[in-house]
Amino acid sequence: MFDIGFSELLVVFVVGLLILGPERLPTAAKTAGLWIRKIRRSIQSVQREINAQLDQEELQRSIKETNERIMRETAQFEQQTQAPNNTESSSSSGAANASSETPKAAPNEPVVTKSTDETASRT
């Protein structure tokens, strides 16, 4: 954090000793230590809050991307399932037209199929 070497600390100590004197220097050092600890805790608290906020934003971005991907895949799946249904409905309507073209027997008449005609002619 701070780039303070031993010689710089020694200079600060000597200046503090000359200004404060030997009686008040330990109390001043203790007070300075308490202030430094409070400042470090505050800085760490702010860093934790920033990291938590960044993690939350990253999580929200990830959730948004996942939701968009799911919506795209769902739309693709729906298109794929609707495409075969459209072809089936057109082929089934063709089959309905073909079945309507076959002659229908009257309710009292027997229905004769091609296979029974062939077996009847062989006997």
TrEMBL record:
Part of the twin-arginine translocation (Tat) system that transports large folded proteins containing a characteristic twin-arginine motif in their signal peptide across membranes. Together with TatC, TatB is part of a receptor directly interacting with Tat signal peptides. TatB may form an oligomeric binding site that transiently accommodates folded Tat precursor proteins before their translocation. Keywords: Cell membrane, Membrane, Protein transport, Translocation, Transmembrane, Transmembrane helix, Transport. Residues 71-123 are annotated as: Disordered. The keyword Chaperone does not apply. Its main location: membrane. InterPro entries: TatA/B/E, TatB. It comes from Marinomonas ostreistagni. It is found in: Cell membrane; Membrane. PANTHER family: SEC-INDEPENDENT PROTEIN TRANSLOCASE PROTEIN TATA, CHLOROPLASTIC. This is Sec-independent protein translocase protein TatB.
